[in-house]
Write a sequence for this structure.
C-alpha cells in the first residue's frame, strides 16, 4: 500500500502506473543488488532470482536499474499522471 500525502507531506503516489519495472529471469544472477539499493523494498529474491513485489512506494529513482550489472532490469518512466510525484515536479 502506497504512503499518502498526509503520511509524507510533499509527495504522493498515484495508482495506475502499471509494470514499468520488469526483470528478465534469464539475465538475473540473483546478486541482490536491487534489493539492497531499493529504499522502497520493491524487490525480493526467490530461488536466486529477483522479483518485483510491488511498486506501490517506488520513487522512480532508477537505482535498481543502475546497479543491475547483468542488465536484467527494464525500467521505463510511468505514464504521466501516475507513479510518484512531488510538489516540486
Ligand atoms: S540487481 Fe539485477 S541481477 Fe542482481 S538480483 Fe537484481 S535483477 Fe537480479
Ligand atoms: S526505481 Fe528506485 S524506488 Fe523504484 S524499484 Fe528501483 S530502486 Fe526501488
Amino acid at each position: 500500500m502506497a504512503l499518502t500525502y498526509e503520511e509524507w507531506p510533499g509527495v504522493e503516489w498515484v495508482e495506475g502506473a502499471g509494470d514499468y519495472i520488469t526483470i528478465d529471469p534469464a539475465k538475473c544472477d540473483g546478486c541482490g543488488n536491487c534489493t539492497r539499493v531499493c529504499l522502497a523494498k520493491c524487490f525480493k529474491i526467490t530461488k536466486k532470482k529477483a522479483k518485483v513485489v510491488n511498486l506501490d512506494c517506488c520513487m522512480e529513482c532508477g537505482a535498481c536499474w543502475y546497479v543491475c550489472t547483468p542488465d536484467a532490469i527494464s525500467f521505463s518512466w510511468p505514464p504521466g499522471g501516475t507513479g510518484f510525484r512531488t510538489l516540486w515536479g
